[in-house]
Backbone:
């Protein structure tokens, strides 16, 4: 029996078997925790060196450029104290903001954003602490402060990206990994297990999935992955030195969740929940609000706030204006190629269902003959679709046929990022068969979206795509939009998922 795979329905092992399983697990657990601590220590050292190096370089650069008047140099003791305060303040802010929790799978865009905010807040704290509490003149030169902030932001961000890349490679090779035990054998468990398998750089190792009474096993969870039942949760978590237990049950009740948590009460094991997307519970930390002064926990928010809508609209206007202006020569060339390639109009105008179910006319460059659906009626495109013209195939491979949709964005009918709009014919079908399908229309339709960058476009599962769209609707943020746009651009350049 493999030590990394739990037995299926096996009885409690004898003492000798327990020792055989537990002791290697403890050794491996200690080794991985030491490696994780070393990675964390390396990150702290990198951040400290980046901040210190940034301000030393800023001082030298400011003097070389004549930005600091002669004779304004601080005393060596004050300069050293000011630098120490800046480094300590940035590190303290990073700790307070949770930047030293070794988060697995964080995007490079989020890394840069969180680093920039942490450095900025840390330097504000340093100025206050150095000037007010310690009597150190931390701002002897605005030029040095500005250059130091810019250099620290760049160096800390670059250092964190490099550290993340190295840490990812180490985790993929089995160093500093975390052992996961998944509770569940349904669709949620299958999705989580497959995602862990596809991202070894995240550093997770699934030791097994536990069957729960009343839950139907999903086909993707094969028999080799089923490791026992949830009544042995604590026993199996202890035997296999599990770091974290992830509850991924479809339709689990609060009472069942409480019973599972009770089993793990005495074990040093982290517990997380992978919620059923159709239940619309956000994955982000739950918010604490109040109703008439009574504290309540926010499990779900409906739509964007007024401020969020304003921010998103401003970004849509900026991006759509820039694209339409910068790419106008390319769009003119594509229009000419379309006219030369096949008879008919340049644009394909089609009714789609958008925000709150309101219909609108979506613009695309025509990539098929005018009578493409004359014999078949409305059909979805597939990777081997024979209908596109020569120019159409070229545009579809690089998603250039969707450029006119930036006109829809500029007019406010769409957003750059959001659930893809569907034709009324398909919306009627999906609304009858897909739970919560129409809830995705609470956000403006988008040119790209969370489902699209995860490979769900064209002839793919509508149910799975809906899950991703609902996640986006419930968890919108400006950072998430920027992340989706960055990954979309990378996929277009790489020619992924386009037909």
Residues:
């Amino acid at each position: 029996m493999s030590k990394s795979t739990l037995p299926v329905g096996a009885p409690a092992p004898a003492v000798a078997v327990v020792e055989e399983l537990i002791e290697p697990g403890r050794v491996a657990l200690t080794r991985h925790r030491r490696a994780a601590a070393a990675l964390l220590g390396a990150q702290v050292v990198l951040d400290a060196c980046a901040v210190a190096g940034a301000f030393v370089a800023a001082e030298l650069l400011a003097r070389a450029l004549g930005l600091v008047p002669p004779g304004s140099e601080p005393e060596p003791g004050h300069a050293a104290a000011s630098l120490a305060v800046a480094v300590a303040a940035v590190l303290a802010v990073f700790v307070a903001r949770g930047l030293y929790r070794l988060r697995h799978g964080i995007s490079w865009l989020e890394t840069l954003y969180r680093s920039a905010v942490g450095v900025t807040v840390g330097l504000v704290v340093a100025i206050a602490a150095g000037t007010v509490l310690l009597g150190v003149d931390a701002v002897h030169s605005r030029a040095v402060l500005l250059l130091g902030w810019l250099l620290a932001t760049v160096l800390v961000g670059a250092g964190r990206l490099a550290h993340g890349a190295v840490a990812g490679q180490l985790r993929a090779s089995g160093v500093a990994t975390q052992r996961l035990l998944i509770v569940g054998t349904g669709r949620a468990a299958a999705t989580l297990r497959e995602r862990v398998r596809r991202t070894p750089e995240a550093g997770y190792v699934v030791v097994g999935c536990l069957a729960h009474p009343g839950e139907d096993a999903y086909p993707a969870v094969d028999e080799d992955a089923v490791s026992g039942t949830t009544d042995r949760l604590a026993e199996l978590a202890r035997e296999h030195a599990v770091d974290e237990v992830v509850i991924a049950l479809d339709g689990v009740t609060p009472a069942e969740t409480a019973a599972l948590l009770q089993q793990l009460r005495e074990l040093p094991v982290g517990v997380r929940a992978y919620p059923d997307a159709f239940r619309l519970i956000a994955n982000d930390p739950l918010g604490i609000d109040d109703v008439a002064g009574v504290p309540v926990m926010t499990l779900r928010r409906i739509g964007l706030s007024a401020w969020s809508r304003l921010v998103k609209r401003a970004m849509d206007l900026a991006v759509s204006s820039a694209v339409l202006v910068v790419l106008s020569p390319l769009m003119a060339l594509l229009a000419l190629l379309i006219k030369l390639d096949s008879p008919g109009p340049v644009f394909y105008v089609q009714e789609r269902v958008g925000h709150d179910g309101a219909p609108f006319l979506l613009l695309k460059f025509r990539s098929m003959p005018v009578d493409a659906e004359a014999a078949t009626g409305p059909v979805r495109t597939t990777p081997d679709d024979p209908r596109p013209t020569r120019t159409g195939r070229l545009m579809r491979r690089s998603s250039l046929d969707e450029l006119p949709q930036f006109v829809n964005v500029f007019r406010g009918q769409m957003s750059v990022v959001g659930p893809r709009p569907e034709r009324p014919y398909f919306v009627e079908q999906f609304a009858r068969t897909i739970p919560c399908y129409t809830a995705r229309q609470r956000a403006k339709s988008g040119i790209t979206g969370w489902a699209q960058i995860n490979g769900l476009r064209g002839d793919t599962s509508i149910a799975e795509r809906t899950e991703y769209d609902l996640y986006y609707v419930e968890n919108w943020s400006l950072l998430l939009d920027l992340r989706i746009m960055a990954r979309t651009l990378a996929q277009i350049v790489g020619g992924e998922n386009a037909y």
The CA atoms of residues 192 and 248 lie 8 Å apart. The radius of gyration is 27 Å. The chain has 15 helices and eleven strands.
